[in-house]
Design goal:
It is built from eight helices and no strands. It is mainly α. Helices cover 65% and strands 0% of the residues.
Length: 198
């Protein structure tokens, strides 16, 4: 799993926080004003998840961001009650994860032959162009981790899918950076062992 320690949420915190609060209060213009402020970070998250995507693939970072944003905003153009901007990025990363997993499942449905191959992931760094079964295997392993240790699974989702730094992950989960580092180390080792079993 790629280390995201050098990544950081890099938007205007005051403006983002204000717009999230306005959206939660029912201001229907706030989501449109919010998108330009968070777009760069969402694109960075999407690109990090789609590194190495094969040329001509139908799922591109821009499309991933737009679909994720629509899922977050919803059809009535309102946002949920946000705790902070790190919470927003957590929800965005989770939406992207679900989109990628759904995409992988669709690819597997149309794919002919071949059974599931073990994921050769010594660092758990699964690019979005990985075999669909590798993406699904990782997602299933994270779900099993969540049953055992929900907090560790949350750390994985923020660090791996959102690419948040240790500090931003700590802020999103109201944990100390030291606790995040400990959970991250445990989760990586646990997931590696789980994926070797498949």
């Amino acid at each position: 799993m790629a280390d995201a320690s050098n990544n950081s949420i890099s938007d205007a915190p005051g403006d983002v926080t204000r717009l999230l609060a306005a959206a939660a209060a029912g201001d229907h213009a706030a989501p449109e004003q919010l998108l330009p402020l968070v777009y760069g970070e969402l694109i960075r998250i999407a690109r990090s998840r789609m590194t190495g995507e094969r040329a001509g693939h139908t799922l591109q970072p821009t499309a991933l961001v737009h679909e994720a944003y629509l899922r977050i905003v919803g059809v009535d153009n309102t946002l949920i009650d946000w705790r902070n901007r790190a919470h927003f990025y957590h929800v965005a990363a989770e939406a992207m994860r679900r989109i990628l997993v759904d995409h992988a499942r669709r690819r597997l449905r149309v794919k002919r032959g071949g059974g599931r191959q073990p994921a050769a992931l010594d660092t758990l760094d699964v690019p979005a162009d990985a075999e669909s079964d590798d993406i699904l295997a990782l997602d299933e392993a994270i779900c099993r981790l969540e049953e055992r240790d929900p907090r560790a699974a949350q750390v994985v989702r923020l660090r791996y899918y959102a690419g948040l730094s240790v500090e931003d992950t700590a802020a999103a989960l109201d944990l100390s950076p030291r606790t995040v580092k400990r959970e991250w180390s445990f989760a990586r080792a646990w997931l590696f062992d789980e994926l070797r079993k498949t």
